[in-house]
Amino acid sequence: MDRTTVISPADIEKQLAFCRAVARLTAQWPDRPLAFVDTYGCQQNEADSERIRGCLEQMGFGFTQDEEQARIVVINTCAIREHAEQRVFGNVGALVHVKRRHPEQLICLCGCMVQQPHAAQKLRESYRHVDLVFGPHALWKFPEMVHTLLTQRGRIFQTPDEAGSIAEGLPVVRQDSVKAWVSIMYGCNNFCSYCIVPYVRGRERSRRPEDILAEVRQLVEEGYKDITLLGQNVNSYGKDLAEPMDFSTLLEEVNAIPGDFLIRFMTSHPKDATQKLFETMARCQKVAPVLHLPFQAGNDRILKVMNRRHTRAEYLEKIKALKALIPDIVLTSDIIVGFPGETTEEFEDTLKVLEEVRFDALFTFIYSPRQGTPAAKMGDPMPREEKLANFNRLTALQDAISEEKHAAYVGKTLRCLIDGLSDDIRYGLTARTPGNRLVRVAGDPSALGQFRQVKITGANKWSLFGELV
Ligand code: SAH
Ligand code: SF4
Ligand code: F3S
To answer: How far does the centroid of ligand 2 lie from the alpha carbon of residue 367, in Å?
Structure first.
């Protein structure tokens, strides 16, 4: 396996110097400039936006939620489904009017969508008010690109097609004070036939364990209580490291960091989820009893054309093994309805998996063709109405299961993390059960960030309700 490219500390230092150079420029402006950062897509993108905010802060920018006030607008895009792209193009199109009122405004687009050549071309030709376009592989050069925009005229397009690298040491501004994301690896090697991610995010590459552990240690010291280790396929963590290491060992080491905090991780691929992982989860006290294990479809023929490289029976075996070790495990999954050629009879195998596993929650999607993926070239004869009808059957079944599973919590007292505040007059707090189910809790804001015993008093299909004990 090829070794991962790590950006040298000298190259990162150069970017930090660009931050300082921009800060010297912005310090001379009459008002402190503001930045508007908008993020689409998954947690990986949220984590990237936290680094973009970190760089912007070092460059002297404050933050605003109002694009009208912003000297710089950054839109971090997603390409996973067509809908995500349409929303971005709609919102970016609307910015032309804002820019007309504020001609000095810089508009930047980054993330997965712009890494696709057809999207970059469309932005180049038809969205001339966009100043900067950069893909995930170029993110670490963001300070340099902003410096160039502010000191020279013209537009910048940086969407190199490469396997990707690892950049350590960029500044971070986090959005939350209780929960934090930590990327442990980037990219994906799986090439599921419907998925764009491997094309836009490059090959799998792992951060060094010492860098990950140092980041988690610092987060725990800062008071973070809920740490999610991120990667498209965390179960193949570490294969590319100079000293290869597996994900279970990493979990073990994160678990050994002193402090009262929870460890979560996502996403796991069923083909790489091992008995060793399940045993590690069961043994490590800080690892939350929850697993997000996408199975996508319940029919073996469909799984095969999806290139998932596991069967339904193998999936169910793994779930059984996990439940034997952790009986109260909370299980969630992703499902695609209407993959090219999937018949309604084949779709019904997906329903059977739901009934057998009884997931706590699901993320369900209607198949969306992605340009350049093998599935986009497959025949797709099923009319949209039939896909929609199947989709509705799926969500109705899951709603009933979620409601039943939630009802079983009523009367229990659980150690929950108070993780947010809410405007609800009766339930001023939000909390998470150990398995990450949402609880709306009566109580005052001083409890934020604490682990508290919560008595569950009610439930519906979306959430639980409770009171502090
Ligand atoms: N790496 C993760 C998932 C990343 S994408 C994994 O393998 O599980 C999140 C989810 O989006 C996928 O699990 C899949 O259910 C869905 N998805 C991906 N491509 C899609 C497409 N072309 N159409 C519809 N849903 C898709
Ligand atoms: Fe996409 Fe499959 Fe990789 Fe997940 S594992 S990101 S679904 S290619
Ligand atoms: Fe979207 Fe890229 Fe994540 S395509 S789902 S933002 S990896």
So the answer is: 14
